[in-house]
Each structure stands twice: as C-alpha cells, then as structure tokens.
Amino acid sequence: MVTILIVEDEPDLLSTLEYNLQRAGFHTQACLTGEEGLNWIADHGPPGLVLLDIMLPGISGIEVCYRLRAQEQTRATPVIFLSARAEEIDRVIGFELGADDYVVKPFNIRELILRIRAVLRRNGEETVTSIKTEESIGPLRLNRKRHQVWLNEVEVVLTPVEFRLLSLLLARKGVVQSREVLLTDVWHVNSLIQLRTVDAHIKRLREKLGAAGDMLETIRGVGYRIQAAC
Ligand code: CA
Description:
There is one protein chain. The chain is an alpha/beta fold. It has 2 domains: 3-123, Response regulator (Rossmann fold), CATH 3.40.50.2300; 134-226, Orthogonal Bundle (Arc Repressor Mutant, subunit A). The chain has helices spanning 11-23, 34-44, 61-70, 88-96, 109-129, 160-171, 179-187, 195-209, and strands at residues 3-7, 27-31, 49-53, 79-83, 101-104, 134-137, 140-143, 148-151, 154-156, 177-178, 216-219, 223-226. It has a 5-stranded parallel β-sheet, sandwiched between helices. The chain has a 4-stranded antiparallel β-sheet with strand order 6-7-8-9, covered by helices on one side. A 3-stranded antiparallel β-sheet has the order 10-12-11. Strand 4, helix 4 and strand 5 form a beta-alpha-beta unit. Helix 6 packs across helix 7 (179-187). It is elongated. The protein binds calcium ion (CA). The site of calcium ion (CA) has 5 residues, from loops.
C-alpha cells in the first residue's frame, strides 16, 4: 500500500484529506508542520508521495521540498504542492524545485486523487522506461543500446551529450525537466553557472531534429519537456 505523507496545517483540511485518501486505498501519515514531516521521513524513510502545503508555520512547503530534493534518499520522492495562492511565481518555483504537480485550493478531492494516481503512475513508468532499450515517439526512434537516433528511419548523428539529453527527455516525457535537473542528470554537474549550456544543447538538438524538434518544448522560466503524446 502506498503511503502518502500529508503536510498541512489546517486541521479540517488535513482530516478531510486523510479520510478521503484512506477511502481511496492509500495509507496516510498526517503532519501539521514541515519540521514534523521531515522528522517523520528521517525516522521512517521516504513515503510513496508527499502532499505538501506551501504556507506552513515554521519552514515553508517550498523549503521542505528543497530539503527533500537535496537529499539522495528523497530526491526522487514525488511531491504535489497544495497552495491557496495561484500566482504563476509559485508554480514556477514549485516546478524548479522538482515538484511533480501543483494543486490550488480549494480543490476537488476526486481530482486531487486522480492527480495523485497520475503522478504515482508516471513515477512507476519512469523506472520502467529508463531501462527500455528502444523508444519511439512520432517520427523519432531512439535506441539506447546502440546509441542511435532515427528520424523517419533516417539516422540522425548526435553527440553523446545530445543523445543523453534526448534519451532522458524521452524517458521522462510529459514531465517538465528544469535546467538544473538536466544539468545534474545529463552533465552530472551541480554548478548552476552553466545553465546556458543546457539551452545551447537543446537548440542544437532541435536543429538536428528538423520539424520533429518542435517536440522539445520550452516551458518558459522552468525548463524543457517532450510531450507525452505527439
Ligand atoms: Ca497552510
């Protein structure tokens, strides 16, 4: 059974969430503050997913997410933000920190459950697709074992970095990857001064893919993504 850690300081909302998520078949753990949530994870290990309120007493949900992403153990733990504020800035910060989704209060509980299931499914699939030898999307075909890419069955010659970049975006298709995440996972560096490197490589990759290059979407101020279905 998947455990969902809920960090929410409004007691009424917290019990509504617990009740409904349990009814939907999840195991829940409720925490009223970010500190409490982080302590629970330190004691019990990462949950299946974290529902994280942004406005919390003490450390904010943003800070909690930041700390989760900074630790090896919780780097990949799915996070869905709950927020009373709908400003774009929150959305951007949320995705830059690697949040998997973002729900604005007041929300429909059934919709929230659908989103939770979608995030869990996506995360499960990601593990599977990352070991898939071959993947196709639209006119594009990529073979991880042979390190080759074809566009309408004509081979496109990519540099090793371009290949890794495309392979990773395909493995995580539908999910926005921030430039920070791409730098870490493609280039294996943490230095943020090289963010423009990502842009330059995306640009070159787009040029090489011609019309199919449009599949590489720019999410302004956040990062890049390949649509789940083209
Ligand atoms: Ca709150």
